[in-house]
Specification:
The protein is an alpha/beta fold.
Length: about 300
């Protein structure tokens, strides 16, 4: 089974307008809400690909109920732990020129609720399962949460860690199957200004030494790089009209999980990651399977001698 964890889910409120003027009345062209969060996005893309998963996390109040209802309607099983406070609302504002995000205030999560989550993961995630740990950590939870989850989980599972800052630094030490920093995040981890492909490979190999079996470094419009223990590969960004980058990174993770769950090797799974991320970036919302397959035909991967 595949499990996705979203510690800090949200109701994402998408707003589209021609332009935004601070301090003035602004008119919206279009608006809609979705259940948001990096792990939730991974589960939704997997469902679009006809792959089942169980979404884990915390939720509370009317916004938490909205997320659970949304997942049920999507056909995704969930095991969210109930909170007293409302799940946050995020605003994602798109104009003709820019995309802006406003992150809402997270609810308080007690130590007892964290212990409940740790117990569920330890008791329910079995050999050969996949656990996706992605997204930010609420202020009320210790930065060691991903480390604690991995150290307490079954050792025969594949863990994908898509996070940053201290939670990432602590979590990777517990050994994971895959991490997916972008170039900026890789530089932040090592406190270095990383620019060239050779530098990306060099520091990604340091991540491997620190505990990540495989590393994908996303480069935006310049594609991405996959680094394994033995080799390095560069993948293109298939051509398409950019609509929104929201969810593209989560779709890359879903693509990798899709490949792994179909018993493909890491390189062939990487092809699905590229196609999935590119398709979402060029879609209204998260990619469908059919749209992903159109991009899959344009994926090019080359081995790098570095």
């Amino acid at each position: 089974m595949i499990y996705t964890l979203t510690l800090n889910p949200a109701v994402d409120y998408y707003i589209d307008m021609n332009n935004f003027e601070e301090g003035d009345l602004n008119k919206v062209n279009n608006a809609y809400t979705l259940a948001g969060g990096k792990g939730i996005n991974v589960s939704k893309v997997l469902k679009n690909f006809n792959i089942d998963s169980i979404a884990l996390g915390f939720s509370g109040g009317f916004t938490g109920d909205y997320i659970k209802k949304h997942l049920k309607e999507y056909g995704i099983k969930e095991n969210f732990i109930d909170l007293k406070e409302d799940t946050r609302i995020n605003i994602k504002l798109k104009t003709d020129k820019t995309e802006t995000e406003i992150a809402g205030k997270s609810p308080n999560i007690s130590k007892e609720k964290v212990t409940e989550l740790l117990s569920f993961i330890k008791d329910n995630i079995k050999d050969d399962d996949i656990l996706v740990l992605s997204g930010s950590v609420p202020n009320s939870i210790e930065s060691s949460i991903y480390k604690d989850i991995i150290s307490n989980a079954n050792k025969n599972i594949k863990v994908i860690l898509d996070a940053r800052d201290k939670a990432f630094k602590l979590g990777i030490k517990e050994k994971v199957f895959l991490t997916k920093p972008n170039k900026k995040e890789l530089g932040e981890y090592f406190n270095k200004n990383i620019e060239t492909i050779d530098e990306i490979i060099k520091y990604a190999r340091e991540l491997i030494k620190d505990g990540s079996e495989n590393v994908i470094v996303s480069l935006g419009k310049d594609g991405s790089v996959l680094i394994t223990k033995d080799n390095a590969y560069i993948g293109n960004a298939p051509e398409g009209k950019l609509i929104s980058s929201v969810g593209a990174g989560d779709s890359m993770v879903a693509g990798i999980v899709y490949g792994i769950s179909n018993n493909l090797n890491i390189v062939d799974s990487y092809k699905y990651a590229i196609a999935s991320g590119s398709s979402t970036a060029c879609s209204e919302g998260l990619t469908t399977f059919d749209n992903m397959k159109q991009f899959f035909e344009k994926v090019e991967i080359k081995t790098i001698n570095a």
